[in-house]
Design brief:
heterodimer; A: mainly beta; Methylamine Dehydrogenase, Chain H; 4-stranded antiparallel sheet; B: alpha/beta; Alkaline Phosphatase, subunit A; 8-stranded mixed sheet; two-stranded antiparallel sheet; about 35% helix; about 10% strand
Chain lengths: ~375, ~450
């Protein structure tokens, strides 16, 4: 296995999330730092604006009908876009603060969004309790609120289980809660301090947390992604980290995690399983070490291959088709200072890549 | 004239108090103290002396000029505080909100300050020349670039000297900072704050794990006995200092004086003595609690209190993720301080300065952060000598450059000194040193900020 870049597409600003367009080959939707929801051709790299949030756009999801895209933003809103007319036909103020992350259920029926502002709640700057439900689920068809759940803000990550029955959400303090959507009942709750740093060196406050979650095959394990504890919140030099937890049947147990010998330092923001489930990609930013994209064997948890794509990666996914080793990474590079005429360079990036093999796992 | 009397009036006299150390020649401490008090030679004006007449003490406390510096170490982002650029390529994810001053907006993270902006003065056009922490911390604490080997005193040391009393029991320069670390700030904290003014004008550091320890009088020693011992120690030490012209002895004596003062005022540093309602208002974090403590200390006569909290504003990583918390915390603290100073009749005589060592870059780095930026940044002031509602200077649409009324550290220090009634351009009396002034080059104060 060898992770390689096959193509790079530039967008004006950092790409926080992408969603492959339904019913359209080589087309995706990108949620960007400028608030824009952009349609992007993976063939030509051309892009157009579908709609815009008033703040950063944080999530984008193409519904299976091929006609609707739902986006989320740091304005706390969910937008329903009609693809053909390129108009927004529904807006919901889901939260008073950011939509940190959003997720679409596998059948496209529900969209979940997480929120919460980190506010000082204690002498050591422990987070204050929430002032609104931190996780909400809406019907993608009607826009109606389906569920609203409590958590400790900020809740930075949210995902659906593969069967669509459950929603898991993780926060700054490394606490994960899992609910059943239909019943609304809390199914599991645990906390790990491994993803959270309390600043000893520069400031006494908390940073890090769970930045992404993913259910494994059979939904029995939940993978948490982020960065290990750091003493200096201004350094961003925690260990590149994933951990897997068995969560069902009322007993939560850590079952696997990234080996220290495999990882460097830097915030990891996304995890994507290969369609075979034999391996997965974890990606983010490299602070020190060798890579910002790592391919891990699911069974052993060992790093199989890695590469440095020289930027921040917010979202990884695999591209459909015969060549199932093709993947896509979305993110950006530094904005940098302005050039002539006060223009900033394009600093959003979509990297198309290949794992350099076909098949069922590590070579 | 007795030998004692002569010694008291002229500690450098050649006639010894005790030549050989024999107990026979030892002056009895009680007699010594009686003599000292009778002569008045040991007692210059002090707070403890002044405050023996309560009404007078209260009046002195009220009229004394003082200053609280909220030191936002690390360099706060102007975009997320006083100079927002919402909806632009540099603006970040936070919006702006209108303020009590029509047409002026601040970050949406500062609703409380927005409501009292007509009581603050904001400078949006700071332009300095140091991009690294240590140098910039020095620049914004000393008001000038270094000129080795000479060390210019910090603002706190100068104000401690100018506004304080040398033998005040409350330290003239108090630094409240709970963080023992802090990289460059840690290095600065370990350095020479007082410069050529001398160790007696260095800060007393309290906060978090930095507590005033070991200042309780031993149970076996009466107060009178303690006073006698201290008077004798002071006399002998001063004599030694004068005879040897020893800077080390001078510093040693300064430390002793400070400890003596701290023994009498240690209780003032106890957060638990402050009303629970006040503690709740200022917020539970260390910065808020120490800001409240600062208010209490200046009420008690401290001329200068610097409130720091490590370097939380240095957000090369997670700028917005951190600022969503620290800016609302600051917003509330500034609001509470300004309101309290006004309600307690202290605003006229208490200057509040809110600043760091520089601002942060308009552009976002790959770590979700903003980096150091001295080219165009903001600060705020309120209270003593300050024009309420002044908003001075401007940056361009993206916040990259100052486009109106660029000012620097010298202008700022001239403003602070003038606001507090201190001659900004006074020449230091420094024998055998080059000529130095409080503010060099007669840099103008920021006139629009001054009342």
């Amino acid at each position: 296995m060898k992770l390689e870049t096959t193509k790079t597409i530039e967008l004006p600003t950092t790409v926080h999330d992408v969603s492959l367009a339904a019913n359209e080959d080589s087309m995706l939707w990108a949620a960007c730092l400028d608030g824009g929801i952009h349609g992007v051709s993976l063939d030509s790299g051309d892009h157009f604006l579908l709609g815009r949030h008033r703040r950063y756009a944080s999530g984008v999801h193409a519904l299976p009908d091929g006609e609707t895209v739902i986006s989320a933003g740091y304005d706390g809103r969910l937008h329903w876009h009609d693809v053909k007319s390129r108009t927004c036909f529904r807006e919901i103020q889901a939260h008073r603060f950011w939509s940190w992350q959003s997720a679409l259920s596998p059948n496209g029926k529900w969209i979940a969004s997480s929120t919460g502002q980190y506010l000082c709640g204690g002498y050591k700057y422990e987070p204050a309790p929430e002032s609104e439900p931190s996780v909400k689920v809406y019907s993608t068809h009607t826009g109606d609120l389906v569920a609203a759940w409590s958590h400790v803000p900020p809740v930075q990550s949210v995902t659906f289980s593969r069967d669509g029955r459950y929603v898991a959400a993780g926060n700054l303090m490394g606490e994960v809660r899992v609910w059943e959507v239909e019943s609304g009942k809390l199914q599991a709750q645990w906390a790990t301090g491994d993803f959270t740093g309390w600043g000893i060196i520069k400031g006494h406050y908390y940073t890090g947390g769970v930045f992404s979650l993913a259910f494994g095959p059979g939904d029995d394990w939940i993978y948490l992604i982020g960065m290990g504890s750091t003493r200096d919140p201004a350094a961003g030099n925690g260990k590149q980290l994933w951990q897997a937890y068995r969560w069902r049947d009322g007993e939560v147990q850590k079952v696997s995690e990234a080996a220290g010998s495999d990882t460097g330092q830097g915030l990891m923001e996304t995890l994507a399983f290969h369609p075979t489930d034999a391996w997965f990609l974890m990606a983010g930013r490299l602070e020190s070490g060798q890579w910002n994209v790592g391919a891990f064997d699911r069974a052993s948890g060992a790093l199989q291959s890695s590469a440095d794509f020289k930027g921040r990666i917010c979202r990884a996914l695999f591209l459909p088709g015969d060549e199932d080793e093709r993947f896509l990474l979305a993110g950006g590079v530094s904005q940098g200072g302005p050039k002539e005429g006060r223009k900033f360079r394009d600093f959003g990036r979509i990297w198309l890549g290949t794992a350099g093999f076909k098949g069922d796992g590590a070579d | 004239m007795s030998i004692l009397r002569k010694q008291l009036e002229n500690p450098s006299s050649e006639e010894p108090v005790n030549c050989c150390g024999s107990p026979d020649h030892t002056i009895h401490r009680r007699r010594f103290l009686e003599g000292a008090l009778a002569s008045g030679a040991l007692s210059t004006m002090s707070w403890s002396g002044l405050f023996s007449v309560p009404a007078f003490a209260e009046e002195v406390k009220r009229s004394q000029k003082r200053c609280i510096l909220l030191w936002l170490c690390g360099g706060p982002s102007q975009f997320e505080t006083w100079d927002p650029k919402p909806g632009t390529e540099t603006g970040g994810p936070f919006g702006s909100i209108p303020t009590a001053i029509p047409g002026v907006h601040v970050s949406e993270l500062m609703p409380r300050c927005a409501s009292i902006l007509d009581k603050l003065a904001v400078v949006r056009s700071m332009k300095t020349n140091q991009q690294e922490h240590f140098q910039a911390i020095s620049l914004l604490n000393r008001g000038d670039n270094p000129r080795p080997p000479f060390t210019r005193p910090t603002l706190g040391s100068v104000l401690g000297q100018q506004l304080g009393q040398l033998d005040s029991p409350i330290p003239n320069f108090i630094l409240l900072d709970p963080c023992p670390e802090g990289n460059e700030f840690k290095g600065f904290k370990a350095g020479n704050w007082a410069g050529w003014l001398g160790a007696e004008y260095a800060p007393v550091r309290v906060g978090g794990e930095f507590k005033i320890e070991d200042v309780d009088r031993l149970p076996g020693i009466s107060e009178a006995d303690h006073e006698e011992r201290e008077a004798l120690r002071r006399f002998l030490s001063k004599k030694f200092e004068n005879e040897t012209k020893s800077a080390a002895a001078s510093s040693y004596n300064a430390v002793y004086e400070r400890v003596k003062g701290l023994m009498s005022c240690a209780h003032l540093f106890d957060l638990d003595r402050l009303p629970a309602k006040d503690r709740e208002r200022y917020g539970p974090g260390t910065f808020g609690q120490h800001a409240l403590l600062a208010r209490s200390l200046v009420e008690e006569g401290a001329p200068f209190v610097m409130v720091a909290n490590g370097m939380p504003w240095d957000t090369h990583v997670f700028n917005h993720e951190v600022y969503q918390m620290v800016v609302p915390d600051l917003d509330n603290i500034v609001y509470q301080l300004v309101t309290d100073l006004e309600e307690r009749g202290m605003a006229e005589n208490t200057l509040l300065v809110v600043m760091g060592e520089f601002g942060r870059t308009p552009w976002i780095n790959v770590k979700r952060g903003r980096d150091h930026y001295p080219n165009a940044w903001s600060l705020a002031m309120a209270g003593c000598g300050i024009q309420p509602g002044a908003v001075v200077g401007a940056t361009d649409a993206l916040g990259i450059d100052v486009v109106d009324r660029a000012v620097n550290e010298k202008n700022l220090f001239a403003t602070i000194y003038q606001a507090l009634g201190i001659d900004p351009y006074a020449e230091y009396d420094l024998p055998n040193l080059p000529t130095f002034h409080r503010v060099e080059e007669r840099a103008e104060p920021i006139a629009e900020v001054l009342a």
